[in-house]
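Minutes, project check-in
Item: structure for the 381-residue chain
Input as provided by the requester:
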Amino acid sequence: MLAMQHNNSSVTTPLPFFNDTPGVKKVEALASNATRPQNNPTSAVLTMTLGILFNVVALIILAKAYNRFRRRTKATFLLFASSLVATDLAGHVILGALVLRRYSAGNGSATNPVSVFQNASTNPDGSCLFLGSCMVFFGLCPLFLGCAMAAERCLGITRPLLHARLVTMARTKMALALIWLLALCVALLPFFSLGAYTYQYPGTWCFIRVMEGTRATDLAFVTLFSGLALSSLASAFVCNTVSGITLVRARLKKRLCSRRGSGGSQDTEMVVQLVGIMVTSCICWSPLLVLGLISATKSYSGFPAGDRDTYSSLMVIGVRMATCNQILDPWVYILLRRAVLRKIYRITKRKASFRGSTFRSIRWDVSSFQSSEKKNSVGKI
């Protein structure tokens, strides 16, 4: 997904949403005084290119790891992880291309941006419907996959025999298909009159109708979307916490048998990566999920004066943070690997030992200096 801040980077004041009221002239005057966006998509293309590059590097790393490790538990985790990165890559390319297309079309238009945005928000076209459904689909898939990965590892660490009997590659692939199917079904609900997609301020992205003319079906749809996403994050948090506590207890009590001892470092590596995925998803997606739910609730009950502009600006910030998830996820696999963690540990240990030896040498020099001073004073007496 592409960060969507570029189209409104030069607009000084958010344009409020409005209806056909006497205040429209004031809004149009404000828009005429605002600086028009410049046709300079260089930073947007750079962001999209870097995101694609990071995801491709992460896929290569995961593919090499899959060929190197043939353990069933490790292979299952790597299949989930590869599917997550591939989904992020697809979402980054598709959504980035759609946003760049909308961005270029908006910059090339010479009409009043207020009237264009008002017409687009009330009458979304086919590209908006596709973009909105992709936002929901590629938003839910990583969260569902992260939850499934955390649950699989929690079962493998706490109940290894049950995990070996239940979790197979065929069932893992079936679970992946069900996850993608569930996210697709949720994304297609507006096409069956449950909720609607519409352009969001500043008109470069589409999402569930949460700001203007929100209906009961829109409120139900955004509640379903946010509820599923937040439940996935909460479930992943519980599973990762249980896995981490189990590993810590096993190491402290030294009850790992020889078989578990050989795979203990792999379990630790996978749990560390899962924690990284969970933290990244929570930071990136929680603002948009919570803001979308609050905005829909307030819009359905009637926005107080002045709140609409605030929430429209906050929604833009929320979607910018959500777009960072597909750029940061690959770094979890690039950085949080055993090879990288071992190098960091060795470097840190060397620095600590060097500081300790330096401190000891300084203490030795001071003590020798003090002893020599005492000898000299005794000789003089």
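Outcome recorded: The CA atoms of residues 159 and 191 lie 42 Å apart.
No further action items on this chain.
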